[in-house]
Amino acid sequence: MLKEFSMFNKVIIPAVFICTTLFSFLSGYAQPVAAEDKVFPGADENTVSQAHYFTWINNTSGGANEKQTMINLDFFQWLRDEYGMKIDIYAFDADTIDGPTYTTMKSEKFLRNFPNGFGPVCQKANPMGIRLGVWLGPDGFGNTAQEEQERIDLLVSLCKDYNFRLFKMDALTPLRPEKQDGFIRAMEACRKYAPDLIVLNHRIDFGKAAPYVTTTLWNGDETYIDVHMTNGQTATHHRAGELARGLVPGLIRLVEDHGVCLSSCLDFWEDDLVTQAFSRCLLLAPELYGNPWFLRDDEYPRLARLFNLHRRYRDILVKGMALPEEQYGKNAVSRGDDKTRLIILSNLTWNPVRYEVFLDESIGLKKGREVIVIQFHPFEKILGRYAYGEKASLEVFPFRASLILASTSTPKEIGLLGCNYEVVRDLSGKDVIIKLLGYPGSREKISLLAEDNAFSHATLDGKDVSGLVKGGRVEISFPGKVLKQPWHRKLGDLQQCQVPEDAESLYEATCYAADNNALEVRSLYRSGPTEIPQVKKAREAFFTQSAFIERGVWDKYLFDEDMNTSFNINPRLRNFNGGALRVDFGQPVKIDKLVIKLKDSQAVQSYVESNELAAEVSSDLKTWLPVKITASENMLTAAFDSNAKLQYFRLLKAPSKILEIEGTHKGISLNRSDWRASNLFSWYEQTPAVKAWSCSFILDEVTKGSYLAIPLAGRHGREGAYAALRIGDKIIGAPDRSVSYLTNVWEFRVEPKDDDYTYYVPVTQDMAGKKIEVIVFGMNNEMLDFRPEAWITAYPIPFEQKELVLQCAAGEHPGPEI
Questions:
Q1: Do 63 and 94 form a contact (C-beta atoms < 8 A)?
Q2: Is the peptide bond before 227 cis (omega within 30 degrees of 0)?
Q3: Quick one: which H or E segment has residue 527?
Q4: 258 dihedral zone (left: phi>0; alpha: psi -120 to 50; beta)
């Protein structure tokens, strides 16, 4: 493509330039503005943020389609109806019109995906207050005046006929210098119909057309977690690298940070969103992409609450000031006007940090009689009323963000005095729902902060507490035993020890605990089933799209009795020497034959010619027995002792594409509903452990959501260090790690890192009171200078919950309109 453009530059362009100039003069479109004229590129630094969703990695190559778009819009309609959450822009990403070449809305591809054009989608989006956007290449103006005009007409049609709000210009090709005038004419014409058209620049040199473009992509970074955005340090979760990005220089807002990716490594997405929407608060904020329907059902109220808070204050969020690092830590920001400030703090260390927030002009507050301070994140809490100039003390948890409001005027917020809480729903015309939060065994007296006579009745977990709405106080107690120790704490430094005799078993435990599925599949398992029809349909639309199935990135395709699906080794892996095929039967079972079906006899022959047919089987990951593998037709077959109970199978080298794996016992097919497989983890003997560390402890109590975080600070090499647990005679692997385990990808490979892994192991109630040994081993002789530690933490915060429902006084709750 670049060679073709070079040819045009040398031969065709001079002639085209003459024709184009004449055509432009005769056309009805305005000429490019003179250099001294001011261009309004659809927004300025004071334009309020636009809530934005775009479809990248909900679709990849092949683009979006009408059916799936309608399902996705149903999801956003449900969020709007149920919680008042609103988005302003829904943008189609690559391959909707352009990609991988320049096309039009008359192309076979576009009409296949949108047989009725954009009309039906617009008709569905417009009543929701949503305008559309689309990914485009920056050029596409062809080589003749007519082709240039056709491209201009296409762009104008999107704005004139469909009221598009956003064009995302990405690196399909460069914008040829001789086509910059054509681009300018297109933008001028588009903005006759959509003066507020936002044009995003994703790594394009627009030359003299640059003033017509609204934003640039900050540092060229995308935010697909553990693919394009990874942690630069050990941390309690995968999103610390995103939290550490910091602030745009000068707090300018006509920049795009690529938003919050909700497709992979979902834990702590709320902190990512708070940082993106409130701290940077760019033109597009809050901004999401990927698959927000992957969240848990209980997380949608929180998503909506953060969106709603941002919309409520977005008029004043356009003005911000960075706060001094020595006082407020890195990347602290205060946004707002002289009466109300929203302050965002963060903590990128392993220990809690307490900040003292000065309630005066140093954070942008004009002098007033008193200041009310409310925390909105990571949970909500009325911190109190303070005299102007006093300090409010606030603790920020490790690797989290905190959002607080400080105001000298009474904010129109509903809240509770006396305990932590989360507003689940605060929507006009519906009962208010508030989730009360407290640590196990704690007792509190609560009262309501709300407008007088706003509510007539109240229930707490179904019991009448209507005295609360009349100014009374209610005593509450949360179930469980009072915690004896902090739920987040360091358990110890691991000390060097001899490489244990069962190092291979520990390694295998982690390989079998983990998987090589697409990151999106891991997100689905993380969140579990949904009871929300709109969420269910959006998930189904994603996982049943042909592009996803054809990539073979889910091990379930090996056990679905469908020879048209497969589980494939990711072709985009870098410096990958092949992994073993591992199959877990879910529990010990009697099995005498395992059949691995490939595409055809040629695939089997090719595999046999290039690989050693070595395989082993085990019942406990400790004792492995060799298995004979035979090849015939399109199958590899392993035969076992019919009297033994087995659970684990491993084949030295995984075939690149497997259609099905079946098992039988005495001719009867086995139930495979609990079977799992992986194909990217190495065979242990290829890189055995050369150094080991260990730490032991006993957990007297286990809180909800607890997990062990095992950071390895330093360099250890790619896949050069692994972690596992030993509890008595039981070994437990680490099912999760930052940076993520190798994956068969939907879009692009997991970033290959050689330092600062952190392993994560869930803590279950049956671990309480038992000696737990954490073991880490290094497998790269040249990179062994790292420091393993053991921490216990939790996600979410281990609060107990109660539900408060407030009924409006006159049948109409005076909450915010949407």
A1: yes
A2: no
A3: helix 519-527
A4: left
Q: Both tokens of residue 425?
A: 């729903």
pLDDT-above-90 percentage for the chain: 90
The model carries a pTM of: 0.93
Q: How far is CA 171 from CA 102, 206, 215, 299, 381, in A?
A: 12, 11, 15, 35, 45
pLDDT band at 429 (very low <50, low <70, confident <90, very high): confident
Which strands sit side by side in the sheet containing 736-738, from one edge to the other? 489-493, 786-794, 706-714, 758-762, 736-738
- Number of C-beta neighbours around residue 11 at 10 A: 10
Q: What is the DSSP letter of 362?
A: G
Exposed/middle/buried for residue 572 (C-beta within 10 Å: 0-12, 13-18, 19+): exposed
Beta strands in 12-96 (DSSP E): 50-54, 89-92
Q: What is the C-alpha separation between 810 and 789, in angstroms, rounded?
A: 58
Residues 520 and 547: their CA atoms lie apart, in Å, by 14
pLDDT per position as a tens digit, 90-101: 999 999 999 999
d(CA 73, CA 121): 9
Cβ atoms within 10 A of the Cβ of 307, count?
23
From CA 507, how far away is CA 397, in angstroms rounded?
32
Burial 241-274, CB ≥16 within 10 A → b, else e: bbbbbebbeebebbbbbbbbbbbbbbbbbbbbbb
Whole-angstrom distance, CA of residue 567 vs CA of residue 596: 11
The shares of helix, strand and coil residues in the chain, as percent rounded to the nearest 5, are 25, 30, 45
Distance CA 251, CA 322 (A): 8
Q: Per residue in 127-156, pLDDT tens? A: 999 999 999 999 999 999 999 999 999 999
> Which amino acid, one-letter code, is at 362?
S
Q: What CA–CA distance (Å, rounded) separates 343 from 377?
A: 11
* 365-378 pLDDT, tens digit each: 999 889 999 999 99
Q: What is the set of domains in the chain, with CATH numbers? A: 2-220 (3.20.20), 314-482+800-808 (2.60.40.1180), 489-515+688-794 (2.60.120), 533-569+580-678 (2.60.120)
Token pair for residue 180?
A: 């910059």
pLDDT in tens, 580-612: 999 999 999 999 999 999 999 999 999 999 999
